[in-house]
Amino acid sequence: MRLTRLVFQLARRNASLIHRREMATSDRGSSIIPKTVNPDIQEERNAATFNVEDFALWWHGGEENLKRKRYVESSVFADIDENKTVASIQSLSHDEIYAAAMEDALALAGKLRKLQKELNPGGKDIWPGLFSGPELWGAMPGGNPFTVHFSMLVDAIRNQGTDEQFEKFGKRAENLEICAAFAQTELGHGTFLRGLQTRADFDSKTDEFVLNTPTITAYKFWPGGLGHSANYSLVMANLYIDNKPKGVAMFMVPIRDEETHMPLPGIDIGDVGKKLGFYGVNNGYLGMKNVRIPRTNMLMRHAQVEADGTFIQSPAAALGYFSMVFGRCWISANNTTMLAIAATIATRYSAVRRQGSINPKQPEVKIMDYVTQQMKLFPEIATCIADRLAALKLRQLYHQTERDIKKGKYDGLGEIHALSCAMKVMCTSDSAAGIERLRLACGGHGYLASSNLSNLYSTATAGCTYEGENTVLLLQVGRFLMKSAQQVMAGKPLAPTASYLAKIKMDQWSGSWENIVEALECATANKTHQALKNIAARMEAGQTQGEAANNTGIELTQAAELYGRSFIAANFLQEVTGINAKTRSPALNKVLENILELYLVKAALDNMNNIFRIVKITDEDVNSLQASLEKSLKSMRPNAVAICDGFDFPDRNLLSTLGCFDGNVYERIFEEAKNCSLNKEPVPRVFHTHLKPFMKSKM
Ligand SMILES: Cc1cc2nc3c(=O)[nH]c(=O)nc-3n(C[C@H](O)[C@H](O)[C@H](O)COP(=O)(O)OP(=O)(O)OC[C@H]3O[C@@H](n4cnc5c(N)ncnc54)[C@H](O)[C@@H]3O)c2cc1C
């Protein structure tokens, strides 16, 4: 029995190695990259205490999923031009990057359509399911101009439109027969929806809406794909009937001719120009002058305008924002993948980079042997795992709420809105800060475009802004917590994820995992009640409710962050110690327990200023936490490379000279530098036109 298991394990391990090697093969003509694996990274793999394939199976949700993922990757990446790297894309002009991004995205779309037919005809899990996320970014190093179309737009039509509207617009969008942008933000307003200035006036004589951009600040600005890719835009505008405002609604507006792609009459449209990242995503601007669309182009699942101008309000105001909840779930999960990619790059690099020694006169050590380096790498590995698991849980809760809404049950909306806001903030800010830490962990070479870390950072940090700016979202979560605290005082029941809010003090500190999670929850409750008390005191002193809330903003955002961290920590604890543990091998469970320990101990130390306020904690307790932190780093040291291998990213998706599976870092960095376009000629033209004349001029 044990022998059979061993043979099976070896076969699986070989399958994964073959997959990664195939993916790693370079087709550059006279490459200097060795075909062998760097012994320093091989040594790490040999030392691992668990089977990497077991980790990959767990991380990807079982054998079928993992097999399919690998098959899709092999098919998609098989004929990719290896010369299309992040560095080579970044050396192109803005227009060239856009063209390359468009070409690559459509080539990927074609491949995914074929794979969908082959693997699951009629399904949507591969096409368009895998088109927009970071899982296949290796096929599109310049970005995907259709990201918003598939990540938000189709779902917005499904959730905000009627079934007939989904038939009319949604199905065409889903098949990419039309391409649409999601246009909410304006030059003058993004966060403050009521400040939007775009108008949609109902004209009952023609049964149409008339859309206008009254000022320059009302121009739509930022929507992904809006510049030159989209021929429709889902526009958020203020609805007016008989010149009376009815609130914000969504309108499906044709913006370019479907044949010629020329902007339609009354449409002023273009690209916003170069940005920090998202190079090929074609974020655009849009102005409209007396643009007429049929009444039935307003998405009317919830609020409606009838032909005679009667306005029927949505049964729950929050329903209008439900498509953003989906967007936030999607962003949360994607950002955890970006952090996992960065962690893989920096960890593998740290296993082959040698610099200095710990004991004088002894050989140079791998930089991963420095405890301070471990502290940069391992908590990020733990964070991406914890955040990822919580993002998957959030997605489950989203689908549950979606089903409830269909049955006319709206009571879970407040909680899913708050939780999705909190999770979006945690996953985007954790990943942005984490990727930057990981870049620093790679020293100078981390600063190279070819490391892919700057590209990952610029993509991850955009998530802190779009789909709700993070501070603004935290303030909304703060309001949800305030309401929940008031419910506690009124003896009313609480939403499940805030059920702990009644308990603002803890009986005892033990430092166990359960105790740390309880402490985070209790700290959330304490901070919430503190904020509530301070708002009340400020109002009593004569401040308006708005002033009091603004002046308490720091505590409100802190309470919201604690709520997010508590959710992630509790969910991680449950995954590692709950019923799922029975489905994993003891060796894998031990590794996950190690990662959980690191995550929780670090969370407790990071939040000690809050924990001090809810429980008696001694200097000895803090010392013991510090010892646990150091012990967990030490335990994780032999497994770090193997854990990252378990994420199972093929080299093509890492797009990094530093993170390749074979560890041949220096050859890759050097080859990429040799290929830099500036090195094509021995003497640059500018030497003859400027430098030489200047040096010879004797000025
Ligand atoms: C890469 C990228 C892609 C994007 N894609 C799209 C898209 O597809 N469609 C679309 O419609 N938009 C898109 N956007 C726009 C994005 O959604 C907005 O930028 C975002 O909502 C933030 O709004 P803002 O720019 O108005 O920031 P602001 O609200 O002006 O924020 C600036 C500062 O003011 C603070 N602030 C603002 N209001 C408050 C408040 N009430 N209380 C306390 N502090 C406050 C914020 O915390 C922040 O520090 C994109 C943006 C980027 C960067």
UniProtKB/TrEMBL annotation:
Q: Which residues form the Acyl-coenzyme A oxidase N-terminal domain?
A: 51-179
Q: Principal localization?
A: other
**Molecular function per GO:** acyl-CoA oxidase activity; FAD binding; fatty acid binding
Cellular-component GO terms for this entry: peroxisome
Q: Where does FAD bind?
A: 185, 224
InterPro entries under this entry? ACOX_C_alpha1 (IPR055060), Acyl-CoA_ox_N (IPR029320), Acyl-CoA_Oxase/DH_mid-dom_sf (IPR046373), Acyl-CoA_oxidase (IPR012258), Acyl-CoA_oxidase_C (IPR002655), AcylCo_DH-like_C (IPR036250), AcylCoA_DH/ox_N_sf (IPR037069), AcylCoA_DH/oxidase_NM_dom_sf (IPR009100)
Q: Which Gene3D superfamilies match?
A: Acyl-CoA dehydrogenase/oxidase, N-terminal domain (1.10.540.10), Butyryl-CoA Dehydrogenase, subunit A, domain 2 (2.40.110.10), Butyryl-CoA Dehydrogenase, subunit A, domain 3 (1.20.140.10)
Q: Where does the UniProt annotation locate this protein?
A: Peroxisome
UniProt-annotated catalytic positions = 467
Biological pathway: Lipid metabolism; peroxisomal fatty acid beta-oxidation
Query: Residues in domain Acyl-CoA oxidase C-terminal?
Result: 513-696
Instruction: List the cofactors.
Output: FAD
Per UniProt, which keywords does this protein have?
FAD, Fatty acid metabolism, Flavoprotein, Lipid metabolism, Oxidoreductase, Peroxisome
Report domain Acyl-CoA oxidase C-alpha1 positions. 321-482
Per the record, the GO terms for biological process are: fatty acid beta-oxidation using acyl-CoA oxidase; lipid homeostasis
Homology family = Belongs to the acyl-CoA oxidase family.
Record protein name field: Acyl-coenzyme A oxidase
Phylogenetic lineage: Eukaryota, Metazoa, Ecdysozoa, Arthropoda, Hexapoda
Gene from which the chain derives: 101889063
